[in-house]
Specification:
The chain is of the alpha/beta class. The chain is built from 15 helices and 20 strands. The chain starts with a strand and ends in a 5-residue tail after the last strand.
């Protein structure tokens, strides 16, 4: 529809014709309710544009389209090889539009432009990785006895509702297998493309569209990335028809620095691990635990790394490492923890205030914030803040370090810095987390499973393990001679 697009000129000068509708059944359409969502540029607090906001009725339309596509021969009978070819084609189109997609990501989200380009590369890499799997999903034959032949087949789990987070929307959509990204500035010919209904993309508020997805009786699976509190609500709502669920929720990931660590590298990785994406990463290593014998030296090196590497600024400017927080609400929430930390006795070592050095002083920028002398009963040690905010504590022994790392309701990621290879593996094994990095932070690869334990989620994404959540296994028994 002609009125479901808007011509924009981004801050970097790129001109974009942006579809603003809901993408249902291979068409952009208006929201049934007429409601819209305004995208705000977090760098200057100005409106970018309005997009349609899906209601429960729109979710129902998308589900009907997806169910029809699942059962239609154009998709149902398409070979795995041909489905893989479509995914490769999508990856090629995303790559061709990488500059436009990265521009939109930075403009709307506030992350540095280079980071947005990195995210687009992750989208294409993930799509191509799973395109390779498309014709390699198979069952097994199982020997039992001479009078029976048993085998298994794998079927798609059905219609999937994928709820994507705002911090890595493009990358997370690619991770979730079925929620593909549709190129924004040009559309491929309908011939040789995904059949109608296979991909449906809805803008919407969590309380409306998100709830409708979790509650819909004809959705077979819901996958969600976001806060633990919201994950619990989705889990409860999805139980209405016992949906299969994958949840990747909050984290308060520890980074352990032992006395034999390369402290300069540990400091630089710690800076990267907490201040990347303005601290808005579920796996951010926001609790740094340092052996008491090197604590003071580490803190000084960490502060030096911030000064050297952590440029706060306009996300479109070259060299910017930390952009603004995504929304005013997020900005206010993060700053509220500063007074809490002070009142509980932590020492403010750096930051803790808004950063006003961009443009006219507007935007949701926060100086990288460091608290030292943090105790395990303090709020900033226990709660996920989701911003450029780190708590640094000390430990005496390896056992104490592991106990402190595990003293959390979360268990998403962790990191260990030591040059003792035996200790590195031993501690990595003992920490209660879905992932552990040894002498690095924030490593991720589409071939390697991603997910957490405890209240950091259920299930895994990425790698071969990620496929298990999207198929069901059927057992077939063939009688070869037993007669009654």
């Amino acid at each position: 529809m002609a009125d479901l697009k808007v011509d924009l000129t981004a801050p970097n000068g790129r001109k974009i014709t942006l579809p603003t509708g809901l993408f249902i059944n291979n068409e952009f359409v208006k929201a049934t309710s007429g409601e819209k969502i305004t995208s705000i540029n977090p760098t200057n607090e100005e409106a970018i544009c309005d997009v349609e906001a899906a209601s429960a009725d729109d979710v129902d339309k998308a589900v009907k389209a997806a169910r029809a596509a699942l059962n239609h021969e154009s998709w149902r009978d398409l070979s795995g090889t041909d489905k893989g070819a479509l995914m490769h084609k999508l990856a090629d189109l995303v790559e061709a539009e990488k500059d436009t997609l990265a521009t939109i990501e930075t403009w709307d989200n506030g992350k540095p432009y280079g980071d947005s380009l990195f995210d687009i590369n992750e989208v294409t890499t993930t799509l191509r990785y799973y395109a390779g799997w498309a014709d390699k999903i198979h069952g097994h034959t199982i020997p039992t006895n001479p009078k029976k032949f048993a085998y298994t087949v794998r079927h798609p789990i059905g219609v999937c509702g994928q709820i994507i987070p705002w911090n890595f929307p493009l990358a997370m959509a690619a991770w979730k297998l079925d929620a593909f990204i549709y190129p924004v500035s040009r559309q491929p010919d309908r011939q040789g493309w995904f059949p109608p209904g296979v991909i449906n993309i809805l803008n919407g508020h969590g309380k409306d569209a998100g709830h409708a997805i979790a509650a819909h009786l004809d959705i077979d699976k819901v996958a969600f990335t976001g806060s633990t509190a919201t994950g619990k609500l989705i889990m409860k709502t999805a139980s209405v028809n016992m949906k299969n669920i994958t949840l990747e929720t909050g984290g308060k990931s520890p980074l352990l620095v032992f006395e034999d660590a390369d402290l300069e590298q540990a400091a630089k990785w710690s800076q990267f691990g907490i201040f990347g994406n303005s601290g808005q990463i579920c796996t951010s290593t926001s609790r740094v635990l340092v052996h008491e014998s090197v604590y003071d030296k580490f803190v000084e090196l960490f502060k030096e790394a911030i000064k050297m590497l952590n440029k706060v600024g306009d996300p479109f400017e070259e060299g910017t490492f930390q952009g603004p927080q995504v929304t005013k609400a997020q900005y206010d929430k993060i700053l509220s923890y500063v007074d809490v930390a002070k009142s509980e006795g932590a020492t403010l070592a750096a930051g803790g205030v808004p950063y006003k050095g961009v443009g006219q002083g507007k935007g949701y920028f926060i100086e990288p914030t460091v608290f030292t002398n943090v105790k395990s009963d303090m709020t900033i040690y226990r709660e996920e803040i989701f911003g450029p905010f780190v708590a640094i504590s000390s430990f005496k022994t390896e056992d104490e370090a592991v106990a402190m790392a595990n003293d959390s309701t979360y268990g998403l990621a962790s990191a260990v810095f030591t040059q003792n290879i035996a200790r590195a593996h031993r501690v990595a094994d003992r920490i209660e987390s879905g992932m552990c990095w040894i002498n690095s932070s924030q490593d991720s690869d589409p071939r390697v499973p991603f997910g957490g334990v405890k209240q950091s989620g259920i299930g895994r994404e990425l790698g071969e393990a990620g496929l298990a959540a999207y198929t069901s296994e059927k057992s077939i028994h063939v009688n070869l001679g037993t007669r009654l």
